[in-house]
Design a protein that fits this description.
The chain has 114 residues and is an all-beta fold. The protein is 0% helix and 55% strand.
Length: 114
């Protein structure tokens, strides 16, 4: 079954850290770039970060540069995408979604309180 399943969301105070994971089931994901998006209440979904197929290149939206780190791993054909989020701000509060091969995960909630 081809699917993306996020985990690791939660509630944290401003300045704290969280690490999101996205388990990608299905060999097709090995050939795709992977990305994180987020959607805050009342706002459109926005791109956060992308990592290339081989993990050699990463890109970030300006507001998270220097605070977030995207990475991916491959183990026994299973791909996992990560997002390490440090120095979290209240404006980072959103549902975070994993994206790969034109597929979306179900999302995981991140809430940052002041």
């Amino acid at each position: 079954q081809v699917q993306l399943v996020e985990s690791g969301g939660g509630s944290v105070q401003a300045g704290g850290s969280l690490k999101l994971s996205c388990a990608a089931s299905g060999s097709i994901f090995s050939g795709c770039a992977m990305a994180w998006y987020r959607q805050a209440p009342g706002k459109e979904r926005e791109w956060v970060s992308t990592i290339t197929t081989d993990g050699s290149t990463t890109t970030y939206r300006n507001s998270v540069k220097g605070r977030f780190t995207i990475s991916r791993s491959r183990d026994n054909g299973r791909n996992t995408l990560y997002l390490q989020m440090n120095s979290l701000k209240t404006e980072d509060t959103a549902v975070y979604y994993c994206w790969a091969c034109s597929r979306w995960g179900q999302g995981t909630q991140v809430t940052v309180s002041s």
